[in-house]
Design brief:
With 310 residues, the protein is of the alpha/beta class. It is 33% helix and 19% strand.
Length: 310
């Protein structure tokens, strides 16, 4: 693994880059999003970790209020330990409510991690933030997270692919598909999710696997509750992204911009509107092998790439 170059970005810089609001209403949005994603993907953990193993250690990166930790805790033995970290402790649960085996830390993703985290976790989980980082910072983040995985342990990344329209019919859900243009303005790379498996393979991870879910938001979802959760989530994201963009940035007139929220909602009510999501997981080899077996890092790992979709 090559030497990591750390960015000089401050916590304030990264918080500004996260365009969604730093408020309690944003925590409510993320919890709603969590339930939508869990329902659409039929679960939260896809990595084939042996959950019966004693004294497991699980990390949740960018944990926010720790909702993911609280939800998955029952999947693991009582002696499992969880560590969640985020750039700010503002949304961490009250101390008196935190179980003994759960710990919350403050950590910037693009600054050096504590030495005691190196090779310390059976599962490292990260979701919904990778696309905010430009290439150099992404490399830092990915390597830092991989460094936390024990040999034989797993990393799981969950990210939306806002760069690939999947709504149907494509020629009618026009307002909804504006979200792809908006994310192209506010995210460093709204196609990053589609390349995560290759990035993990290039870093020497093995048994790299993917599940792809086109998560429906709105009336077309066969489960009305999940459809409503997706609708609420995407409408909130639209409002936040519009706040950081101008109509001319995505080729709209002022009148079209003013009408966008109404037409966006109408599309979710009328058409099959969806956002593609990637669950990507990989294992750290027990013994580090040379990455350049074939003509390129990807060639060397192709036999370990598995691409199921749902």
């Amino acid at each position: 693994m090559s030497t990591t170059m750390y960015s000089t970005s401050t916590a304030e810089d990264l918080q500004e880059r996260y365009i969604l609001p730093h408020t309690l209403s944003e925590i409510d949005r993320m919890r709603n999003q969590h339930e939508w994603v869990k329902g659409c993907a039929s679960g939260l953990v896809k990595a084939p970790l042996d959950t019966t193993k004693p004294r497991l250690r699980i990390m949740d990166s960018a944990t926010a209020d720790g909702y993911w930790i609280r939800d998955v805790a029952d999947m693991f033995p009582k002696d499992a330990e969880f560590v969640g970290f985020d750039i700010t402790p503002d949304f961490y649960p009250p101390l008196h409510t935190i179980p003994p085996k759960v710990h919350y830390e403050v950590q910037n993703l693009i600054e050096p991690f504590p030495a005691q985290w190196k090779g310390a976790f059976d599962l490292v989980h990260q979701r919904f933030i990778i696309s905010l980082f430009p290439d150099r910072e992404f490399a830092t983040v990915l390597r830092s997270l991989i460094d936390c995985v024990k040999p034989g342990g797993w990393i799981q990344l969950v990210e939306p692919d806002f760069g690939t329209p999947v709504s149907e019919p494509a020629d009618k859900a026009i307002a909804f598909q504006t979200i792809h243009k908006l994310t192209g303005q506010v995210m460093a790379d709204n196609h990053r999710a589609a390349r995560l498996a290759t990035s993990l393979a290039e870093e020497g991870m093995i048994d790299v696997s993917i599940e792809i879910f086109d998560m429906i938001a709105g009336n077309a979802h066969p489960d009305p509750e999940l459809g409503a959760r997706g609708r609420q989530n995407l409408f909130s994201i639209l409002a936040a992204f519009m706040s950081g963009t101008r109509p001319r940035d995505i080729g709209l007139t002022e009148a079209e911009w003013s009408d966008l929220p109404v037409k966006f909602a109408e599309d979710m009510d009328t058409h099959k509107t969806a956002i593609r999501h990637y669950f990507v997981w990989a294992q750290k080899p027990l013994k580090q092998e040379a990455k350049f077996i074939g003509s390129s890092p990807v060639d060397a790992q192709n036999s370990d790439l598995n691409f199921p979709s749902s």
